[in-house]
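Slide 14.
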Amino acid sequence: MPDSIPEHCGCPTVILMGCSVRAAAVDARASGLKVIAVDEFGDLDLRAACDAWFPLAGICEDSSPLEAWPDAPIVPIGGFPHALLDRRLFDRRLIAYPTADSVTRLSDPLQLGALATQCGFDFPTTLRVIDRQPITLPTVGGESPQRWLFKPLIHGGGVGISEASKLSHAPSDGFLQRWHDGRPVGINFLARDPDHVDLMGAFGGLVHRHSDQQGHWYGGSYGPLRLPESCHDQLVRLGREAVKRFQLCGLFNVDLLLSRNHRATLLEINPRFSASMELLPQFGNLIAGNLAAYRRSRSGSLAEPSEGVEAARGCKRILYATRDTRFSEVRMRIDAIMEIDRRVHFCDLPSSDSIVPCGVPLMTVIVRDTPAVAIRQTARIARDLLN
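Slide 15: predicted structure.
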C-alpha cells in the first residue's frame, strides 16, 4: 500500500455502501484510502480490507455511527438504498452518485430508448406496469411473443428480474420488457468530466438462475473482451452521449446484449462501480479515480494497478449455495484448490461457522487466465464444490 494518500482523492477516508462492497474496498485500500464499509454480508476478506464495518440494515435504521467520519465522502455501490439520501447525515457530504433527477431519468425507458436510437443501438420494447397490476402479455402480429421479462423499477445484480409469463400480477412498480437474444456484455466507463469519457473495458456476463422465482441474477464476468473497431467507436459515442444526457460523472457501467453479427441492444446504465470492474487493468485505482472525477480534479487516465494488485484478465464467478451449507464444510477444500493452482482465488468468504441458505451467494471464485480457460476452470470448480 502507498505511504501517502493520492492528492487528487481529496480525502483519506471513504465510506462504501451497498449490498456487497468487498471488491470496491480492496480497490480503495490498494490506492491508500482508509475504508469504512457498510454492506449486508461483512465477509471475512472485506473486514480484512476495511478499517471499520457496519451492517447495512443497521445503518438504514440509525446512521449516527457514520458521524465519526464527518468529512468522508460516500460512494454508493450496487444495492445502495436510495432512501438514505434523504437523511440529514448526507446533506454535508460528497455523495459520489448522480442527482435524484438523473437517477429517475436513467430508469425511464423512453430516455434510454432515445439514447439508443441516437447512437445506433436497438432497445427492447418496454411497457410500464405498477405494483399489483395484472400481467397481460402484449401480442405482436396476433401472437404472443416468445418471452417477456418483468423488471422492477430499481434493481441491481438482476435481483427481481423474472419471466413475465410466470407472474399473474406485477410484484412491484416496474416494466415489462420484450426478450432479446444475445450474450450479455458490460461496458465500463470513467467520466473524468463531460469532455473526457474513457472506455476502460468490456466484459461478458454470466447469468445465474436458481429458480423461475429468483429470475436472472448476476453470475459473474469474464474478459476483458476484444471488440471490433466499429463496435468500439459506437460504444465510445454511447458513453459520451450518456454523460451529456444524464449528467453522469465518475464510474458507470452500460449493460447491453451483443448478437452474433455484433448488433447491440442497450439494456440499462448503472452510474456506479460495477462487479466486473474487479477484472480491469486499472483495478486498485478506481474508487480514487471516481472520487477525483466527482471533485472535478482532472488527473489524466487512471494509472496501472498499485504494487500487489493482481493483473487483469480472467473470470469471476459467483457460487450460489445449492443447499443450506455450513461454510466450514468447504473451507478446507478451497484452501487445497488454491494450494494446487495459484491462478485461483476465492473471495467474499463468510465465517467458518456461517450457514449459507440455499440460493444465496456462498462465495466468489476468480481465475486469472485467458477468458476461455478461466470460464471453464471456474465452472469446473463450481461443480466440484457445490455438487
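Speaker note: The chain has a mean pLDDT of 85.
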